[in-house]
Design goal:
Elements (H helix, E strand, L loop, with lengths): L6 H18 L18 H16 L18 H14 L7 H14 L2 H13 L4 E4 L15 E5 L2 E8 L10 E7 L11 E7 L5 E6 L8 E12 L3 E2 L5 H12 L17 H10 L1 E2 L2 E2 L4 H23 L12 H24 L18 H14 L4 H11 L7
Helix pairs in contact: 1-3, 4-5, 4-6, 7-8, 7-9, 8-9, 9-10, 9-11
């Protein structure tokens, strides 16, 4: 890793990044933009975000800390942190290729061969190669260890048969991180799994878009029917898929660093909720004049600030030495549930108007609060439900027994 930069170097980098994003962030298009990477369901959205990610990468503000020999910037991670914070502050669109940038890419850089890094990393950064994830199955969603999609070795190929669901970007993806059962007679269900960097463009792979409650798309069900992928798509050794998948989930849950940067979700801005409380009416007066509303607003503002400071504290070893993994392992649970609750609160401010949705003329601010609330559930489920996250904290942070 490069030497840590000086404060002056970071300040100069921040100034350059701020100037670049202020000039280059595109105006809001004439179609509805996704709030998270999981809502990319139209060609308009997809191409808009591909172009944006490529532009940010070519400017040096994405993958800045990934190795230069594989297409990254070769800088210290602090530079990428600065760039990502500038994106957040100035309202940058999300990065489309989140599964590649935040999960598959760090995994390949961590565990992959030199050839795999050369083959995949630059395409991930440039958005030339979109990645998806093949973990959940229709009958085995949260029980990941019971995955039944089969992988059978046949000479120089693996033959894949089965179904994966909730495949974000499945329609557009070129590659999938795939967990499949290759050793059905293994001593236990975990030992029978293998992990693949699987192409999605081979015969025998079909995707079916899933329409969500919001009316949007973004997920697919993915069907493998004797799909043949090259033998070198196997990552690690056969039967090691569970350990590789667990490492992947550490990246997905932000319990391990190394991500490429950028925004994958537009986090709620509590100041916008305050403004909504000023506009909304309650008993003929602005809702913000209601003492109960004011009290709850203050609670949410304190919680938002607390979450931000907690993330900063996680990088200061003396402040987390008693339970060093407590913040990384609880981060997803804290942030996704907070997002869901604050969007729910925003709807309650609207009273009867909260029943209107996107596209209805009576909807306040175009129904953004209602849409954000319904979409927030995706993040509380993907990567392990909130209930599973609570179990992880209980077992691995607090040391409570499994049963």
């Amino acid at each position: 890793m490069p030497n840590p930069p000086s404060e002056q170097e970071l300040n100069e980098f921040q100034a350059d990044a701020s100037a670049w994003f202020a000039e280059n962030i595109p105006p809001t298009p004439n179609f509805m933009m996704p709030l998270t990477f999981m809502e990319v369901g139209t060609d308009e959205q997809f191409h808009f975000l591909v172009d944006w990610q490529r532009k940010v990468y070519e400017a040096g503000y994405l993958g800045a800390s990934w190795p230069k020999e594989y297409g990254g910037g070769g800088l210290h991670p602090k530079f990428q942190n600065v760039a990502t914070e500038v994106m957040r502050r100035l309202g940058s669109p999300i990065m489309l290729n989140t599964i590649g940038l935040n999960w598959a890419g760090p995994l390949i850089l961590d565990m992959g061969t030199h050839e795999e890094k050369e083959r995949y990393i630059q395409g991930i950064l440039s958005a030339e190669d979109i990645w998806c994830q093949g973990f959940s199955e229709p009958e085995n969603g949260s029980d990941l260890g019971n995955a039944q999609t089969r992988a059978v070795r046949d000479g120089d190929e693996w033959v894949i048969t089965g179904t994966k669901t909730w495949t974000t970007h499945g329609t557009y993806a070129k590659y999938m991180i795939l967990l499949a059962r290759s050793l059905p007679d293994a001593a236990n269900k975990y030992a029978g799994l293998s992990f693949f960097l699987a192409p999605m463009t081979v015969p025998g792979v079909k995707t079916q878009p899933i329409r969500k409650l919001t009316g949007e798309y973004g997920f697919t069900e993915t069907y493998f029917t004797d799909a043949r992928i090259p033998a070198d798509c196997l990552m690690g050794e056969e039967g090691q898929g569970w350990s590789v998948a667990m490492r992947t989930l550490e990246y997905e849950r932000n319990a391990r660093g190394g991500q490429a940067g950028g925004l994958s979700i537009l986090a709620p801005d509590h100041s916008e909720v305050v403004e909504l409380a000023r506009k909304a009416q309650r008993n003929g007066r602005p809702a913000i004049e209601d003492p109960v509303v004011r009290d709850r607003l203050v609670e949410y503002m304190i919680e938002a600030q607390g979450i931000m400071l907690t993330h900063q504290r996680s990088a200061i070893a003396p402040l987390v030495q008693d339970r060093p993994m407590s913040i990384p392992l609880s981060s997803k649970l804290m942030t996704t549930e907070f997002t869901r609750r604050i969007n729910e609160f925003a709807i309650t401010l609207l009273g009867q108007a909260g029943a209107y949705y996107v596209g209805e003329p009576e909807a306040v601010d175009g129904g953004i609060s209602q849409r954000a609330y319904l979409n927030a559930f995706s993040a509380t489920i993907g990567g392990g439900t909130s209930q599973i996250q609570a179990n992880i904290v209980a077992e691995h942070v607090l040391g409570l027994p499994k049963h």
